[in-house]
């Protein structure tokens, strides 16, 4: 029996997308062999474990917590869909719809991309899932459960893929219709998920309460369907029937919805706003003019105002600060939640360092990427001194107050004295200048031809494509900038180690706080020296920069 034409076209599109991805991310034979061996080893371990669980269930020594399994199924599906939807958005952006939609309908494109993702997840999951189902069926002596587990997982994966595609196209459609949603899409989409995760993991919410909340959700019925083939397990027949209706009807409804959204997304023009948002004149009156007009030259202030406009449109510095603060912030939070409940003394310095590094990377490392569209005009209209000074002014005007406020806010609840907190704050501000100067000097090393127009999705920004560099070079540049600022901060960080500060304090006959204060002064002086050196290097590189 021949396949329907729409199914053939969908399979062909899925194969084409698979070929494109394989050519884009060409993995070595060694990597593929290692991945295969890892999957095989995992499958063997899963099969042995499942056999033991099934045998225990049959003998009555093991009781499956059905409530927990149902809740875990719901949580797994809900947390998986946003990640798959993000990948689907990237894949949809790389499809050439202008040519493809002249030969096939929208439904075939949606099914083809969904089939591509289904294959991407089904292949690595197939062997572990079959191993688990087989092992559990042999242990429980219930062959039918192997069939129900495999079929249920396959159907659930199809539901997740189609839900992710629909979720992705819904976001694209709303972004086309609303400029404001286009800018705040990341917060609108992921904000509720983060809030829900925060509530569920808060100390006042127990695991039993979370299970009670998630168990009644219809997605939990899928667990009953998977376990339906085991007579020794009391799974609900009514829930299993509901799961069949949910999986079968859900995939059909989501396919139709995704097709309708695809027709509107790929056949409509983007809606703009009648008002001009976040556009500022680089000359004339304004807050910057009132604050800095009498202190800096006109070219320096113009460069700074241009960088502020660029940062408002694409908030790279904000995202860098958030990304860098998340790591130490999580560590500090875990320490603060320890039985002692004390905030470490080095916390203000850690916050100052991360804020300074984020500001430097946001305003300095991406300097050429931000200036790329108008770089020829910038190179011919402003000197190196004015350009670097304007960049540092833009970064310091934004980063220094934020760094100082966060450092003081954390320092108030930490066991540090007023003098030490004052020196940490000053060191943080100086580290901001050092980080911006170093990142700018490193960012001006790259050639004009190394930049490409890349598709991105930056929170708080409606810009969909920005100039950037591919490969490992951007990450090496970020690592070098953070490394230099880290070396400058080493004296201060070492002074918070009791193994370092205590012997020095004993030898000098002074309290450990004085030793830490002295180390902070040393770090501040190093930051000034490195800033001057990096500033001169950045000016030289800007003046000597060549266009092809």
From TrEMBL:
Which intervals of the chain form a coiled coil? Answer: none
Q: Which key words are in the record? A: Membrane, Transmembrane, Transmembrane helix
The answer to whether keyword Membrane applies is: yes
Q: Which sequence ranges are marked TM in the entry?
A: 30-53, 68-85, 121-138, 144-167, 187-207, 213-233, 317-337, 349-369, 390-415, 421-454, 475-494, 514-535
What is the top-level taxon of the source organism? Archaea
Q: What is this protein called?
A: ABC-2 type transport system permease protein
